[in-house]
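Revision sheet: structure tokens.
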Amino acid sequence: MNERMEQEMNRTIQMLRASMPRKSSRATIQVLLRLSAEEMNGVLLLVLFGLTVLLGTTAARLLSQPMLTAFYTAPLPGLLLFCRYVLYGNERMRELEETFRYSYTEMLVGRTTVISLYMLLVQVGLALALHGTNGADFLRLALCGAVPSIYLCALLLLLASMIRRQKTVSAIAVALWMALAFLAVCFPVEQFLCRLQTVVYGIAAGIGLIFYGASVWKTMTERDLYVVSQG
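Predicted:
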């Protein structure tokens, strides 16, 4: 394709965008959650749930560090789902974003919310499994896994709304998790996590939820980028 043909295609796209009707209102959160949930593969969700619990209990038995296991294992399924359903950007489809029914930012919030709710279920299941096998306090385990998961979701939501190259966001997400894993190797993270009181985890989770809510608000107030819902 030469430069002249590319310019002609760009002009055609702009003409199509100008002729398409605009949305008069935003979609409701119920609609976005339904559309986002329908995108998810149920078999994949079940497999991830089972593998996360199996990995967590196995690692806790081998390392005898249930808090550390909860902290590092709980965010993994969410990270994988983000890469699969949010950070899979199709640049060619993005050229026609403004011609579709639901905006990219709306679907981004819907997908992130569904993944966050799923991660909550995974954390509860993982905490129950670790409590049963290691006798650690269930609430502390659940909050210990929830804290990194909440901040990860909020940060990825912000990055996905600001950075157009989704592969870059995927690389950043993986790098963040690897950096945390590196800290566990170099420092006594398990001892540090065990010393923290349950209320500290609760406060950290509360601040994370505020950060998450601010990320949702910022994303929803960004310029609309329209994409088709993936069925």
